[in-house]
Specification:
heterodimer; A: 413 residues; Cytochrome-c3 Hydrogenase, chain B; three-stranded antiparallel β-sheet; B: alpha/beta; Rossmann fold; two-stranded antiparallel sheet; 7 strands; globular
Chain lengths: 413, 256
């Protein structure tokens, strides 16, 4: 006998996804997580374009994590041309990342994830009964948006994030205001962390064998080195040797494996691997939590996200202080195209992403490869779904569907 | 209660995020407006009749097409939000340079996804669109203005004047005079010129203003060192099909 459970349109996720679970004679036969998003041909539309056009084009891969795509592509172009950016550029880029994480993680936690745990279809409906909680979500997003607008020029797809640096930089007074905004946000983020720590998450233990993250102290710093929970280390140039993509006929996102195995990236993977390097004040908060890290419960991605939010604010304050003492006049490097290939890696809110571009000697793109977090997470999420269906075999179809949705959502794919 | 839907086709969700950034407006709309369909933000998305349906993204798959056609049937007013839905978006910038087959091969190699895909197209190629709010992303002030107008039975109005006008109002220095390629003179304003205010040339993400003079702009670019095909491609990123062919030819003659 065949029984099929389908979620044809996953709601409260960015993009378009569907889950199909097929049982035969009461046994799980197949699980598919399908991304039905139309292809946008980024590897094709970047070709023949000038290097300076690349960050602008690939920004459009994701309206929520565009800072990451812009920076990863800028890193790759700078790598190809041997460009070294001044300290101020690096600091401003790090501050942009603080803004990006505040906006993306707050959007996910308050608007996409929380309604499940509070029993509402969405945050708009939740606002009637819990206006202050929803307001807090808006407030965190707003601070993140302000930072991205101040440095990038717009809240979404800021065009001032360029290869080599920026076309202009904020005034010191504006940066001081950012510092004050971030300091004032810390109590809100502490409240966020205790809220998400206090929720009832389903019991679950993931079987996904490997966790992957960049080797930086935390997401507000950059690194060219990738580390795994297996103790493997590789550079951005070796990324495609380790992470292999294949096309699955049922999904428009490609499927990636690391040494042939599914792997996890994202907030929980990062906190599990590098939690010890977070800001001391954050580590202190973490020691008081009900949730313990490292953890194999994928639903704790939500708590890890709240941890990263608080950490972003603390690091943001430090970055602003450093910026106020640095030379704001030096905000871009000169860029001279040379023939060659460059690589960029970056921790986006939902996980590690990778960009590679080749250029002709006059700076035209001759080839590109982009590996997004969604593609890399696909096989891990499928693995987790399989595990979920097996561990919750006695619950009703309705409950199982709900759990499956919450699990996919926890990854914010 | 006014029924509003927000539908996403193929895009980056950036415009839907801008809708979620309209905190004040959303708070004021609660009680007057029911979001009966908004899958990015909520479950239980009924596909009933809409007073206003906002649609983001390009039409790139069979599913996009079906959803759009069904949405059109049920919507009194259909508003395209963002450059993907108005002109096809960045994903359509090379539609005229290659076949769908070539585009697919560059991304997927020899295998093909099961989903039936098309070359990315704007909504207006498939259904009738009542209003277009271009921009990458669309401007949230314009979104709020549109919602407010429609709720009050007022026709929203978007003058297609160039971005230069907004630069003058903001007292921004002219970037073209400073040697920076800028698309302001040929681009549809309404954004408040945030990019030029930061010293970055307008990228034309909102498409064409009325009576754009591409030839003259291309000759200025040429003098600034942005030449031939590179200059045309710079103009094409967001305009796709709306960049007139005629102008391209005249540059080819001059440039190449």
């Amino acid at each position: 006998m065949r029984r099929e459970l389908s979620i044809n349109h996953l709601s409260r996720v960015e993009g378009h996804g569907a889950v199909n679970i097929l049982f035969e004679n009461e046994r799980l036969k197949e699980i598919r997580l399908r991304f039905t998003e139309g292809p946008r041909f980024f590897e094709f539309i970047t070709r023949e374009r000038l290097y300076s056009e690349i960050p602008k084009i690939v920004s459009r891969i994701c309206g929520i994590c565009y800072v990451s795509h812009r920076l990863a592509s800028a890193f790759a172009v700078e790598d190809a041309f041997g460009v070294k950016v001044p300290k101020t550029v690096e600091l401003l880029r790090r501050l942009l990342v603080v803004g990006e994480f505040l906006e993306s993680h707050a959007l996910h936690l308050y608007f996409l994830a929380l309604p499940d745990y509070m029993g509402y279809p969405g945050a708009i409906q939740m606002a009637k009964d819990y206006p202050n909680i929803v307001k807090r979500g808006f407030k965190i997003k707003e601070v993140g948006n302000r930072i991205m607008k101040l440095i990038g020029g717009k809240t979404v797809h800021g065009e001032n994030i360029l290869v080599g640096g920026f076309a202009s930089v904020p005034q010191k007074e504006s940066l001081e205001r950012v510092g004050n905004d971030l300091r004032a946000l810390i109590p809100e983020l502490e409240a966020t962390l205790s809220l998400f720590d206090s929720l009832d998450y389903p019991e679950f233990e993931s079987d996904v064998p490997v966790s992957v993250s960049l080797d930086s102290r935390d997401v507000t710093e950059f690194s060219d080195l990738v580390v795994t929970s297996d103790g493997e280390r590789f550079t951005r140039k070796e990324y495609e040797l380790f992470v292999k993509e294949e096309v699955a006929s049922y999904s428009t996102a490609k499927i990636s494996r690391l040494n042939g195995k599914p792997f996890v990236i994202g907030p929980l993977a990062r906190v599990n691997l590098k939690g010890g390097a977070l800001h001391p004040a954050v580590r202190e908060e973490m020691s008081l939590l009900k949730t313990k890290f490292p953890s194999k419960n994928s639903f704790y991605n939500n708590v890890a996200r709240a941890v990263e939010l608080l950490n972003a604010a603390y690091r943001g304050v430090e970055i602003v202080e450093e910026l106020l003492e640095s030379d704001l006049e030096s905000f871009n490097a000169s860029v001279e195209p040379v023939e060659g290939t460059g690589y960029g890696v970056k921790e986006a809110p939902r996980g590690t992403l990778y960009h590679r571009y080749s250029f002709s000697k006059d700076g035209h793109c001759t080839g590109a490869n982009i590996i997004t977090p969604t593609a890399q997470l696909q096989s891990a999420v499928e693995e987790d779904l399989k595990n979920l269906v097996e561990s919750y075999s006695s619950v009703s179809d309705r409950e199982l569907k709900k759990l499956a949705e919450m699990l996919v959502r926890a990854y914010d794919p | 209660m006014v029924k509003v839907g927000v539908m996403g086709l193929t895009g980056c969700s950036g415009c839907q995020c801008e809708i979620l950034n309209c905190e004040d407006a959303i708070n004021r709309l609660i009680g007057r407006v029911e979001f009966s369909y908004f899958p990015l933000a909520q479950d239980s998305n009924g596909f009933s009749d809409f007073d206003i349906l906002f649609v983001e993204g390009s039409v790139s798959t069979e599913l996009d097409r079906e959803k759009l056609i069904e949405g059109r049937k049920r919507a009194k007013i259909l508003v395209a939000v963002g450059t993907c839905s108005c002109y096809g978006g960045v994903q359509s910038q090379r539609n005229d340079e290659a076949s769908l087959e070539e585009m697919l091969r560059a991304v997927y190699g020899e295998k093909r996804p099961e989903v039936r895909v098309f070359k990315p197209a704007p909504l207006s190629e498939v259904v009738e669109v009542d209003y277009e709010l271009p921009g990458c992303p669309m401007d949230k002030k314009q979104f709020v203005y549109t919602v407010a107008s429609l709720l009050n039975g007022v026709e929203p109005f978007f003058p297609k004047i160039p971005v230069c006008h907004e630069c003058k109002l903001s007292e921004n220095e002219c970037l073209l005079l400073n040697g920076i390629p800028c698309q302001g003179p040929v681009s549809f304003s309404g954004c408040g010129a945030p990019c030029t205010a930061q010293g970055v040339g307008c990228q034309g993400c909102r498409g064409n203003c009325d009576f754009p003079n591409f030839e003259e702009l291309l000759s200025i670019y040429d003098r600034l060192g942005l030449k031939g095909e590179d200059a045309v491609r710079f103009l094409k990123v967001f305009r796709g099909k709306t960049l007139p062919k005629l102008k391209e030819r005249s540059v080819d003659e001059k440039g190449a």
